[in-house]
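Notes to self after the call with IL:
- keep both proteins in one doc
- input above output, always
- annotate only the second one for now

Protein 1:
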Amino acid sequence: MALASPGGAHAAAGTFVYHTQAGAVPHELADPVDGRCYPVGDAHGVVGNETDRGAYLYDTPDCRGPAAYVPTGFYAVGRFHSVNFVP
């Protein structure tokens, strides 16, 4: 049995995959923390949300402003600068 403290950080299970150059080796975020902003530089190309949380992709490095949504289990093509995950 696993116990968690109230108010502790929860994490998505799985991996979010993205590229910073077309055709380049993919980068991975494993088990990202819910609600945390992950700056990713100038990511573009195919992204894969292999987590159990929805991913929001932002044009800014601080997860502010309009976002594109990538549901769990989906792949997309786009350009973004930060990502966060919401249950």
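Protein 2 (the one to annotate):
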Amino acid sequence: MSDQEARDLDRAEEYEKMNSRVAVLGQFKFEISSGLIIASRYADKLRRVALVTLGKMIPKDIIMRDIAELNKELYNKIVNELKVNKLDVIRLMVDVEYNPQEKKLQFSNIRIIRYYTEEECKKMGEDLIKENEKLKDELEQAKKKIEEIKNIIQ
């Protein structure tokens, strides 16, 4: 076991005592949640939450292997698709189903929830108001042109 894995297992036990972020959805089916975290820490947090929530029912090597694959997929979504800054606050929620025959975790319904600061919300609101005003002006100009065309036709 590597130092990283040992540290994750120690931290996982610590998390288990503090709080568990899991909902049981059925036999071998769970919903895990990272809680609020900064985006740069999502991989560690998700791995630790998975170890805490699934570690007593599923072999740890399977958890580590499959969560590593999920983290690669999440990196692409968080960094490349959503363009989340590494210091932005996010919450990850994932449905996990364990297939004992294949000895594999299957992930579905992956949700990445991004939280914005009050300043970011105000700026987005101001940008929307500006865009709305611009569209209102364009609409008025289009109405005037339509009236001009109607007058020419009549």
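Annotation: The mean pLDDT is 86. Residues 3-115 form a domain with the D-amino Acid Aminotransferase; Chain A, domain 1 fold (CATH 3.30.470).
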